[in-house]
Design goal:
globular
Length: about 220
C-alpha cells in the first residue's frame, strides 16, 4: 500500500504506468488551475510543470488552495508540497508562448484568463490542449460541462475566445470546461464550489486523455 494504491485500483496497472510517465504543463494555478494541479499530483502524474507569475493575496483565500501563504509565490508553494512539480514563475504572454518549447509535454492545460495568451496557447499547443473558460460569477457546479471550444453556451469568455481564435486563423478543436449558468454578478465574484469543479474537470479530462493515448513522449 502506498499513496497511489487507490489510483492503481481505479485505473489498473497499465493505465497508471502511463500516468506515471506523463509530462503535463499547467498554465495558471489560481482557483481553477491550482485545484487541477493538486488533483493531478495526488493521482500519480509523473512530471508536472506549472507556470504562473502571481503571489497569493488575501482575496484568493475564498477559493485558492494553499493561499494561506499570503505574499508567497504561487508556483513555489506547490513545488514545496510535491517534488514532481517544476515551477516556472513567469507571466504568460503571447511573447512568452512564442518562445516556449511545448514539444516535451504530453498535455497542456490552459487555466489562464488573459485572452491574447489563451489564443497564443491554442495556436502553439494544438492537439494537446485542454482549456478552462469562465469560472467566475457562478454558483451552481451542476451547470458545469465539457464540450468542444466551438460548442459552448452562456459563456462570454468562450464567445470572445472563439472570435479571437477565428481571427487568428485557428482551425483546430479542443475540449473546454465551461458553465451553462448565466453570470450572477458584474464583478469577478467567485465561489470555490464552482472554480474547484472546473479544475477537477480539467484534471479528469487530462487523466482520461493520458491513459487512453497509445504513445507518450
Amino acid at each position: 500500500m502506498d499513496r497511489f494504491t487507490r489510483a492503481r485500483w481505479l485505473l489498473g496497472d497499465e493505465k497508471f504506468a502511463k500516468l506515471q510517465k506523463a509530462k503535463i504543463l499547467v498554465c495558471g494555478v489560481g482557483g481553477v488551475g491550482g485545484i487541477c494541479v493538486d488533483a493531478l499530483a495526488r493521482s500519480g502524474v509523473g512530471q508536472i510543470t506549472i507556470i504562473d507569475k502571481d503571489t497569493f493575496d488575501v482575496t484568493n483565500q475564498n477559493r485558492q488552495i494553499y493561499s494561506e501563504a499570503v505574499g508567497a509565490v504561487k508556483v513555489s508553494e506547490f513545488a514545496k508540497i510535491y517534488p514532481n512539480i517544476t515551477p516556472i514563475c513567469e507571466l504568460i504572454t503571447p511573447e512568452f508562448v512564442a518562445n516556449f518549447d511545448f514539444s516535451e509535454f504530453d498535455l497542456v492545460i490552459d487555466a489562464i484568463d488573459d485572452m491574447a495568451a489563451k489564443v497564443a496557447l491554442a495556436n502553439a499547443a494544438h492537439g494537446k490542449l485542454i482549456s478552462s473558460m469562465g469560472g467566475a460569477k457562478r454558483l451552481d457546479p451542476t451547470k458545469i460541462c465539457v464540450a468542444s471550444v466551438w460548442k459552448t453556451c452562456n459563456d462570454p469568455l468562450a464567445r470572445k475566445f472563439r472570435y479571437e481564435l477565428r481571427k487568428s486563423g485557428f482551425k483546430g478543436d479542443f475540449k473546454v470546461v465551461f458553465s451553462t449558468e448565466e453570470p450572477n454578478c458584474k464583478e469577478l465574484g467567485s465561489f470555490m464550489g464552482v472554480t474547484a469543479v472546473f479544475g477537477l474537470n480539467l484534471a479528469s479530462l487530462a487523466i482520461k486523455k493520458i491513459t487512453t493515448t497509445s504513445n507518450l513522449s
